[in-house]
Amino acid sequence: MVPHAPARLVVLVSGSGTNLQALLDAVAAQGAGAYGAEVVAVGADRTAEAGAAGLLRAERAGLPTFVCRVPDFATRAEWDRALTEATAAYEPDLVVSAGFMKIVGAEFLARFGGRIVNTHPALLPSFPGAHAVRDALAHGVKVTGCTVHFVDEGVDTGPIIAQGAVEVREEDHRDGGEALHERIKAVERRLLVEVVGRLARDGYRVEDRKVRFGE
């Protein structure tokens, strides 16, 4: 797949939006043409008042935003349909799940499958799910990290695009993993910016779960 130049990004958030900010900073520093992509809208599954501060970052950047809350719909399928339509309205080349804490459904995947980029705070396929840092510490690993991958119908099971390693320190077991998670997030932000830019500039294809850059 070769996105438009620059590629149009819709970013989905649930929390503070630090990954979103990293993307916005990269575009601002390099220019959309040189970076290869621009953020055209930001969506969330909750309001800024309920914790999705990433929406405020988007508003400060002059970007349109939308909110699709699961409780506002009778079924999860209806929510998924609304999220799909709201996202599609901005005609994205890539959708970036930047700390978006909801699992998208069949309709969203049918519309954007192969174009949804997600980050995860572990070296997949190890420690998928919502408690990756805690699970890695409990397992006693000496090295963990983060993964940027495409989203499929599973939980953190999509094709891996890139990974970054982070050493586990002895003191990480004493603070519940908070410092470790912060070190992982720092690597995650840098890796996400690199990956999204490269996907946008070079194009890509997926063959037997292997992501190949360039056409």
Automatic annotation (TrEMBL):
Belongs to the GART family. Its EC number is 2.1.2.2. Catalyzes the transfer of a formyl group from 10-formyltetrahydrofolate to 5-phospho-ribosyl-glycinamide (GAR), producing 5-phospho-ribosyl-N-formylglycinamide (FGAR) and tetrahydrofolate. It catalyses: N(1)-(5-phospho-beta-D-ribosyl)glycinamide + (6R)-10-formyltetrahydrofolate = N(2)-formyl-N(1)-(5-phospho-beta-D-ribosyl)glycinamide + (6S)-5,6,7,8-tetrahydrofolate + H(+). The record marks D156 as: Raises pKa of active site His. (6R)-10-formyltetrahydrofolate binds at R76, M101, K102, I103, V104, N118. N(1)-(5-phospho-beta-D-ribosyl)glycinamide binds at G17, T18, N19. It holds the Pfam family Formyl_trans_N. This is Phosphoribosylglycinamide formyltransferase. HAMAP family: PurN. InterPro entries: Formyl_transf_N, Formyl_transf_N_sf, GART, GART_AS. Keywords: Purine biosynthesis, Transferase. The keyword Cytoplasm does not apply. Residues 8-196 form the Formyl transferase N-terminal domain. The active site is at H120 (proton donor). Pathway: Purine metabolism; IMP biosynthesis via de novo pathway; N(2)-formyl-N(1)-(5-phospho-D-ribosyl)glycinamide from N(1)-(5-phospho-D-ribosyl)glycinamide (10-formyl THF route): step 1/1. It comes from the Bacteria.
